[in-house]
Amino acid sequence: MKRIVLIDGDCHICNQSVQFIIKRDPDAQFQFASLQSELGQQLLTNHKISSSTNSMVLIENNRHYLRSTAVLRICKQLKGLWKLSYIAIIFPRILRDAVYRIVANNRYKWFGKKDQCPIPTPEMQKRFLR
């Protein structure tokens, strides 16, 4: 099953997250698209998510997950000890999402904004949807 992760294409931490996921996803379960792309906007519309969302979005099994739930569901599928982080799902979503929002609201200030992206390898390019 393919899983689609929508990210903010201008966000440094989001781009680092993509590289993090790819390194720990040798079975290539995850594919990626920018929230700002035409495809990203279409997927948001199809799943009735606001086009102005600034959250990481995971789409799997024709369902969507936002913020901390998306992050934890992604970690659950990664190789290594990252699977264990899924245990944080036991915390109320309102608390998990509060932490997520603090990071999201400060991501440009703390991690910067991407002026340019690194050139992806051909293998990485296959993972990006257009």
UniProtKB/TrEMBL annotation:
It holds the Pfam family DCC1-like. InterPro entries: DCC1-like, DCC_oxidoreductase. One of its GO terms (molecular function) is protein-disulfide reductase activity. This is Uncharacterized protein. It comes from Halalkalibacter hemicellulosilyticusJCM 9152.
